[in-house]
Amino acid sequence: MQQRNLGQQGLTVSAIGYGAMGTAIGYGPTDDAGSISAIRRAHELGVTHFDTAEMYGWGVGEKLLGTALAPIRDQVTIATKFGFTPSFAPNSRPEHIRTVVDASLQNLRVDSIDLLYQHVHDPAVPVEEVVGVMKQYVEAGKVKYLGLSNTNAESIRKAHAVHPISVLQSEYSIFARESESLLPVIEELGIGMVAYSPLARGFLSGAVQPRSAYAADDFRQRIGWWEPENYDENVEIVGQLTQFASRKGASLSQLAIAWLLAQRDYIVPIPGSRNAGRVAENIAAVDITLTVADLAAIAAIAPAGGVGSRA
Ligand SMILES: NC(=O)c1ccc[n+]([C@@H]2O[C@H](COP(=O)([O-])OP(=O)(O)OC[C@H]3O[C@@H](n4cnc5c(N)ncnc54)[C@H](OP(=O)(O)O)[C@@H]3O)[C@@H](O)[C@H]2O)c1
């Protein structure tokens, strides 16, 4: 597996990582044994970077990832995140950060967290104060690298001035292009990017269902791409991308991941799957090279991403 540098502080990870959100929340019923097999298969195939968060089941996802990675702890880097209340409002108050990070260390069964993110910008707490607390964990040897997620250029600059930020984690895919506006600032500051939901939450996976097949309480029903007025147009885009992928000998999910790898050499996509076979399919994207002409063809099919908003 190719390696990529995230930031300039020494964090090097596999070009494709693994996102563990779905092992705990978001995509319907989970099967822990299947998820653990999927995680271990990812590692066997060269993935060394694994992403979770307190919020993925309030510790449940972290515990599962910690169990799966315990035998290979020294061969991988683990990222986790703090910053939400149980009702999904931002909370980056210092005492809350400390409570959550101390619990994450226990849940993951590690002495140190390789990469700690603030999960979401909290307008109630200056980011300098947030990073000040994160920095104390680095100084104590309990965290190695710092990251931010779901934030803006101004906060990135302020945070980086307190302690070097290694990674911005942002939603980025052929469908979700908003974070391209943050590339100039992270490039200037030497910060890497972890691209989350690289398969557009499954829309770019080949597994997209007729709209009526999604349960009324499936969170994707609330995403703009799934809204009735946008859905058919997005399915049409996906159909064209699938045809293009097959001409390259790739699946749609592989095309989506290869597209991200081709954008910048400091971008690491973290597709999520609870199935070992689909994990293997996604990881094989590392061997797909997209030419300038390929990228232009994809841009012609989806010039501005998916139709509708990503949230
Ligand atoms: N920072 C943040 O705020 C934030 C937000 C969202 C996500 N994330 C991170 O990013 C990671 C990935 O994002 P995500 O899980 O939301 O979305 P994603 O990776 O874009 O898509 C995941 C969905 O696609 C399906 N899938 C994956 N590979 C497939 C394949 N080859 N064929 C068919 N279906 C496939 C998965 O189902 P199966 O599991 O059934 O295969 C799941 O339903 C998360 O796990 C999490 O670590 C971070």
UniProtKB/TrEMBL annotation:
SUPFAM superfamilies for this protein: NAD(P)-linked oxidoreductase
GO terms for MF: oxidoreductase activity
Residue stretches making up the NADP-dependent oxidoreductase domain: 15-301
InterPro entries, A to Z: Aldo-Keto_reductase (IPR050791), NAD(P)_OxRdtase_dom_sf (IPR036812), NADP_OxRdtase_dom (IPR023210)
Keywords: Oxidoreductase
A UniProt-annotated Pfam family: Aldo_ket_red
Taxonomic superkingdom: Bacteria
Cellular component, GO, one term: cytoplasm
Keyword Oxidoreductase set for record: yes
Signal peptide location: none
Protein name: Aryl-alcohol dehydrogenase-like predicted oxidoreductase
Organism field: Rudaeicoccus suwonensis
